[in-house]
Structure formats: structure tokens, C-alpha cells
Amino acid sequence: MRRMATTDARPRIVLASASPRRRRLIEWLGLPVEMRSLGIDEPLDLSLPPEELAEHLAASKALAGAWSAGPHDLVLGFDTIVVLDERILGKPGFDSEARQMLHALSGRHHEVVTGVAIVIGGRLARSFAVTTDVEMHALGDDEIERWIARGEHLGCAGAYNIEHHLARVTEDECFQNVAGLPLCHLYAELATGAFGDLVGITPPVVRCDAALARTCRLGPRLCGLIP
Question: How far apart are alpha carbons 155 and 91 in whole angstroms?
Fold first, then answer.
């Protein structure tokens, strides 16, 4: 974890990812964002603890995305991994590997860890990781095959996307962290003013609750809306 002083210049927000889901979530903060696709596929260093590994992968993406950024641009990188019985699951390489992951996760609790990195002026300004407890629904063979037929599994850590209701979290956990971006945690960092004048930044709680049709108990605390 690192933090460095920044200037008062108004930064441009750059997302070091081609993920439309992550772009949509950042826009819920009221911030315009540019996307920069990188094509980075860094192998998992399984010798690292999950939180450290997720931070490392996120920082690698953010630093790569800063190669043509301006000195005051704020570049965001994210990476998500799944942890089951202390075993790290990344994105499956093949359909057969995805089936193995989904069968192993079926009906069980596991952890999803998303690393976040903020780069300014080509230097890592801040990195952290958020861990969420997740319960996977019991999945039958037919349901697994229907999910694989959608063609999204190879791009998802653990071979699943929580937005398609294959798993669930409680109202005290961050749903969006499992989707790949801990939104309220990111807001809490950016709203400090340590990263420049982010005009229009807005707590995302209302939009997130409306989209998920639930009332999150974690987000308001993180965003300073309740004690």
C-alpha cells in the first residue's frame, strides 16, 4: 500500500481496462472516464497472498495504462480473483476448466478479492484490495452448461459473473466488488481530495441500490452518509 502527494490540478480519469461494466460503475460516481484497452494477461503468482496478488495485478494494469497519460491524469487499474479453500482461481482458459471451477464453487462460500490501483504522473499513488464473502448457488449440470453457452465465462475470475445471479452476497458486503470494482471503497478514496479536484464526484449508493433492488448497509458507512 502506497500513498503520495499530488497536485491540485484537475485530473482526467482513465480506466486501464476495456470492461464496459467497470466504466459504467465509475460513471455512477458522476465522473467522466476514458477507457484504455491494454491486452495485459499477467500470470498469477500463487506465492503471493490473495490481497497482495490482486493489488499487484491492478497496479500492473494501471501503470501500463499510464504510458501515454498526462502528468495530472488519474489512471485506475483493477483486477479480481476468487479464493476457494485458500486456492486462487483466476479466469479459466478453457470450457473444461470453467466447468471444474463452477462445480467446485457450487453451493459453497468463497471469497472474491479485487485489487485497486491509482496511478498519477506515471507513479503508483495508492493501492488496496477489498475482500467480499460470496455464496454460490447450487448449480446443476444443465445450469452450468447454459451459463457456459453464453460465452462470458472465460472473461470472469472463477468462471462466473455475479450480475447473472449465479451467486449472492449479504447487504453488509459489497456486491460490486464481486462484479470487479469496489465502488463505495473507491469513492471513499477519491473523495478525500488527495488526488486532485474531482468535480462532480457523487456517492454511488442510491444508483447502486436502485440497480440491484436492495438496500446496502455497507455503502452508506463507507461513503460517510451515516456514522
Answer: 6
